[in-house]
Amino acid sequence: MGDKVSIILTSYNKPDYLQKAIESVINQTHSNWELFVMDDHSNEETTAVIHKYLYDHRIHYKNSFVHPQHRLKTTRYATLINDALPYATGDYISYLTDDTVYHPNRLSRMVQTFLCHPEAQAVYSKQKVVHVNERGEEMSHFYRNANTVLDQAAFQVDHCSVMHRRLLLDRIKDKYGSYWDDDMKHWNHGDSIFWLRVNTFAPFLPINEVLDTTYKTPNSFQNAFQFLPADLIDGTFVKGSDQHVYFLDQGVRHPVGERWRSVYLDRTVIIPDPYLFQYHMGKCLNIPNYVLVKEADRPAVFYIDAGKKRRIESQHAFQFYQFKRKDILTIDKEVLESLPEGPPITRERSGVIANPPGRRLFFIERERFLFLHGVFHPISEQVVRKFFLQQKPIPASFRNIQQFPIGKPFYPVYDEIIKNLNIAIE
Ligand code: UDP
Ligand code: MG
């Protein structure tokens, strides 16, 4: 048996990191490898990086040219890996993402381990995980250990810390009908779903040495995916990997102009691109919903709700609905006049909540609710933290909101998926 390693590198719009990833393969002490750079229709800056390395005959490149509408249909990296695997000629297979670097002895240590353990089918190593900020500076780091033989590697071992024998692939395909399961619902843990398949044939042998470093950027899927509900909340400022800020409104993402910068600056939620692409592109908004505005020389304060301006009738109502003066934006008379008038926002003496402002957070009998489009939705604390950093919940009782329906909850979808998989996570 030989010692050739096939490496499948998946890439999407991370030119700087990608360059480091490719160079980390070129710098391996073990030189018998082939690298498949599977690019998922990245920007030109990224493909230009790839082209710089194609002089090396060991490096193969394929662009998926995926259409934006199809991007959200599968777990993309799993789809790309499945496309590459039939061409792999190595004795061993190893995976790499564009935000990870292999340490120079990564391949040699793993191949050595296989040579010493002819019965082994899969090995994994210790990993350094570095969290970086938007400027690429290290904020913190930790290690994922590799000191036990794993019968269940799912949710323990990262995508980039594994090598397995190529022959195992045939057995996996025979049993499951495909190599990697690229169902969209596994986007955040497609590697773990593949490890489950590997584990039905063999355990993972540990190599207790750090052989790769992975970088978690604010845009990384895991960060972006964390605490995200299945349906995004209307009225959120979001951005995907291209850094453009959009305002979400009922299936449409509206680009927002610079003039709303002070509003969206500290409340833009980073979301994964597939979520973003589900929204049609709308027109640039004159004025987004759910902001507080007033004219320069007039005291009246309005809340923009469903495209209408709603006057906040009293100081009492302003305070009750937890609005803050610092959030009031002064806008031109003409812009305000162009908006139709909605019902005023009032505070009834009886305590009944008659016509509350939209997209406000309530605290009702120890539970959090979000009032949106006329419905009270239960919402988890984690989703609140991700979407409503600054609003204090409005205290209320079920009696006072009884004319409104209770809708579908906003809970993190990832937790639900894990629960349904029914596997223990440490
Ligand atoms: N990826 C892809 N297509 C996409 C988005 C991501 O092929 O539309 C690849 C990306 O290049 C990387 C892997 O999927 O190799 C995981 O993505 P990311 O690093 O953003 O996720 P995380 O580090 O949070 O798991
Ligand atoms: Mg990553």
From TrEMBL:
SUPFAM superfamilies: Nucleotide-diphospho-sugar transferases. Residues 6-168 form the Glycosyltransferase 2-like domain. Pfam families: Glycos_transf_2 (PF00535). This is Spore coat polysaccharide synthesis.
